[in-house]
Specification:
403 residues, 18 helices, 75% helix
């Protein structure tokens, strides 16, 4: 823990990490809030699913695109513009009278396309705030801290949407979006760090083996997690506290793993080992739907999640030029979004056919592939033991602007 305490004492780290967590908190709220809101208005989960699909498509497209724009126009300009547009789209969905489903889909698409690229921005800033020895633990601490989003976000949203109103649930997410976004944009580090304009075409960064490895593995990992979430809800029901407790334990496992393994040196087997633990936990979970069995096995699986994400962040950072980091993280985020959508869709299909166990089979299969990919392509995995995980310097000077 002394490593993390030292990190949090580093000037600006605790403030910036907290600001970006608040700005990203709607990620754990809006999907569920949209689902409940559109279903309430149109009495159709199918209609709600179409709106969520449009939002996810927009986010997937925006990931590498808006991240790349930050190197052209600057982080603050891109973050401010996207925040304004996204807030307008979210507010319209919440406050407008009942609209046709295609209009809600269009608003969801606009909101997804304009999602502020906070995560790529902060991942790009971190290497400029700490020394090379602290960077990997910082990625791990950040990956662990973001579990707060997925533990508290759905709980708060469900309580407000069911006990008060779905409109208020969306407006609360909007308040986090605006408040956290403004806080993050106002942070001195956002104005101080300038991303050089990338000289390569959009998507070329995916030719970096480590970036492609992180994108594919992240796609499979988050797909498995989405299938687990669907399976747990199907097993215990939407209104059962047991489903929320099991998913909270799953997230707590990730938090424990991130804090416990964040200081471990990253060798070429690191990602495969972490994914193996996740696969074994999810495969065991598929054996029984008993509450205590799922609590224990998903705790085991969760322990590998934050450490696996931290490894992905580190190998991407160490493999690209500083001017390419934001776009690289944008692609990784897009892979995770597509994985979440695919995992939910496959799990839903298997639940309809085989009930809740089908979702756990899907999760185990995706996690198994997520283990095999870094195992078979470990040659693409950098060995960071004793190495600097910071991005490769660009050949031209990187200007640093006063905040």
């Amino acid at each position: 823990m002394s490593t993390y305490l030292s990190l949090l004492k580093t000037r600006g780290v605790a403030r910036l990490m907290t600001a970006q967590l608040v700005a990203r908190f709607p990620n754990g709220m809006l999907s569920l809030a949209y689902l409940l809101h559109i279903e309430h208005l149109h009495h159709s989960y199918g209609a709600a699913g179409l709106v969520l699909a449009a939002t996810s498509i927009g986010q997937a497209i925006a990931g590498p695109l808006t991240s790349r724009w930050m190197g052209i126009w600057g982080m603050r300009r891109v973050l401010t513009l996207t925040l304004i547009v996204c807030a307008a789209a979210v507010g319209t969905i919440a406050l407008s009278p009942i609209l046709p489903v295609p209009v809600y889909m269009a608003l969801g698409l606009i909101g997804g396309l304009s999602t502020p690229p906070v995560q790529p921005a902060v991942r790009t800033i971190y290497p400029k705030m700490v020394n090379s020895r602290q960077l990997t633990p910082l990625f791990s601490l950040d990956a662990s801290a973001q579990e707060v989003i997925w533990v508290l976000g759905p709980v708060i949203t469900t309580f407000i949407a069911t006990q008060v109103s779905t409109v208020l649930a969306i407006l609360l997410a909007l308040a986090f979006l605006i408040g956290g976004g403004v806080w993050f944009i106002a942070s001195p580090e956002v104005g101080r760090v300038r991303i050089p304009r990338s000289r390569r075409s959009l998507g070329v960064v995916l030719k970096k083996p480590a970036v492609l490895l992180a994108t594919i593995t992240g796609f499979l990992l988050i797909g498995a997690c989405a299938a687990i979430e669907a399976g747990v809800v199907s097993a215990f029901g939407h209104d059962s506290p047991e489903s929320g407790i099991v998913l909270a334990i799953f997230a707590v496992g990730s938090l424990i793993g991130g804090l416990s393994l964040g200081h471990v040196p990253i060798g070429p087997w690191a990602l495969a080992r972490r994914m193996l633990g996740i696969f074994l936990g999810m495969a065991l979970a598929a054996a029984s739907l008993n509450f205590w069995w799922l609590a224990v096995t998903l705790l085991m699986a969760g322990i590998g999640i934050a450490p696996a994400l931290a490894v992905m962040f580190a190998i991407v950072s160490s493999s690209v030029r500083f001017s390419e980091t934001a776009e690289a993280y944008g692609w990784v985020g897009t892979g995770q979004l597509i994985g979440a959508a695919l995992g939910s869709a496959v799990a839903g299909f298997l639940i309809d056919r085989y009930d809740a166990p089908g979702a756990f089979w899907a999760a185990a299969a995706l996690a198994g592939l997520g283990f095999l990919v870094p195992l078979l392509f470990r040659g693409s995995h950098p060995d960071l033991r004793g190495r600097d995980a910071s991005p490769i310097p660009d050949t031209e000077p990187v200007p640093v602007q006063p905040s």
